[in-house]
Amino acid sequence: MGCQLQFLRGLHAFWRKSANRCRLRRRLNAFLQAAFPAAWDKACVRIARGGGRTCIAVVGRCSAFEILWERFQPARQLCLRLQLDPAARRRPCSVRSDVMRSCEIAIVGLGLMGSAALRSLATCGADVLGFDPMHLGEPRGSSHGSCRVYRRFNYESDAYTDLSERAFEGWRELEAVTERVILKPSAVLEAGPKDSKLVAASRAAAARKGPIEGPSSGAEANAAYPAFNLPGDWSVAVQQSGGILLAEEAMRAFRLGLEERIVPASARFTSTPTGILVSTSHGDVMAKQLILAAGPWISKLLPEIGPHLRVTRQAVGWFKPSRPSAVRYGEFPIFILDNGKRGLVYGFPDFEGRGVKAAQHDLGPDAGPDDWSPLPTPEELSVVRTTLEQFVPGAAGPITDRDVCLYTNTLQADVVVDDGNEFIIDRLPGDPRIIVASPCSGHGAKFATAIGSMLADLALDPAASASPAFSIQRFSAFARSAS
Ligand SMILES: Cc1cc2nc3c(=O)[nH]c(=O)nc-3n(C[C@H](O)[C@H](O)[C@H](O)COP(=O)(O)OP(=O)(O)OC[C@H]3O[C@@H](n4cnc5c(N)ncnc54)[C@H](O)[C@@H]3O)c2cc1C
Prior knowledge:
Layout: H1 2-17, H2 21-35, E1 45-50, E2 53-59, E3 65-72, E4 77-84, E5 101-108, H3 112-123, E6 128-131, E7 147-150, H4 158-178, E8 183-192, H5 197-207, H6 218-224, E9 235-246, H7 247-255, E10 262-263, E11 268-272, E12 275-280, E13 283-292, H8 298-301, E14 309-319, E15 334-338, E16 344-347, E17 356-360, H9 382-391, E18 399-410, E19 425-428, E20 431-437, H10 448-460, H11 476-482
Parallel strand pairs: 5-6, 5-13, 6-10, 8-15, 13-20
Antiparallel strand pairs: 1-2, 2-3, 3-4, 7-9, 8-9, 11-12, 12-13, 14-17, 14-18, 15-16, 16-17, 19-20
The chain binds flavin-adenine dinucleotide (FAD).
């Protein structure tokens, strides 16, 4: 009993200190592992708010107990119960073709966003199944390929910087749990003409968090990193705490140990009064809720979202460095060059021995979700090539490899007007059992751990609501269907 009391007091203290449900869940998991070392095999905490009260359910798999802790508002009365519940023992789900299965939450699409949600939900003990026909390593899906830029300070807005910081904790946690390197530390150098809004916004975002170190002009950047030949008067901002996000490695880590929860098949879904019917060639599953994280394919599954999205073909190249020692990982930063109307070009140090990966961030031509070929032509990579020749001559050798990726961009919203290229992470107003988790407009990868937690919150907590910046109701077509 002493142990239970200590545990429940601990819960109360954690709850008071933690405004944020994800942090609370993480702290509870750590606390439970310490409080019940013999009983605890997989931490599993669920938190729900509703009807003015908060309920925390804790389910231990080994010893099969359930503790409900309820806090009633406004009387602030605390009601604690401990139940022994052998039925709380859970087994991983799987789908067999001969039986109609059910699950609490189905995730359709296991790119970075769906895989992150799968891990978050499974860690919380949710009965979750993920569906995706694609194998890791296939050159399709917006998360494929070796790397993405992790920027801690985001020129787009402070909201993204907050999300980056939250995601950073998630990446470090994932690395610790899976014992894999996923986010390789790297400085990120952003540069552009003196009036570059991008550089000014990045610098301001970084300055709000602390002092900025490193070159601040083109001349200083050229001296620090000899691969560059930037105009001396260009404005430069360096984020020392950026990183190279190993995208495929991240998906592998998210899925680690959850193989039995993954159905390797294409899925379609139908809303029914009793649940969401998910149909695949491996059998059907009835889910209580569905997370739709199908990247550029999302409009195929949810046609009404199509008019608000634009899928674009993005050409990527690897350039053999003309001065390999000048672009080595650890000595050369990730770079983002804002060359005004001539384009926004980014690139990575040669961390794989494969050359400098570089691409244009400006939106390419419209594409369909299945348009992953042909590989980019030299013409499609010509802006990247001339930018490297002019500003990063140490990286500008022949093209050794090429790839195509698709951005799925939001168009400008009309209720809460934005510039487009934002995210949608929200319940569908017409059927709140469906949670839309896409698209991420060419800059979502770095946030995947945070987005996975957000999706888990939306699925597990009926009272959780989408962040206004990511609300689908900023588009009038969806705002109308809510009323
Ligand atoms: C060239 C390029 C560079 C980028 N650079 C950066 C960067 O530097 N930094 C950054 O933060 N972000 C970057 N991004 C953006 C980031 O990679 C994407 O926002 C992110 O990967 C999107 O992930 P997703 O899970 O939404 O989609 P996806 O990875 O496309 O996943 C969708 C999944 O859904 C599956 N699927 C589709 N239909 C079905 C179905 N019917 N049933 C089951 N499964 C289905 C697909 O097989 C796929 O695996 C970049 C993107 C590209 C293309």
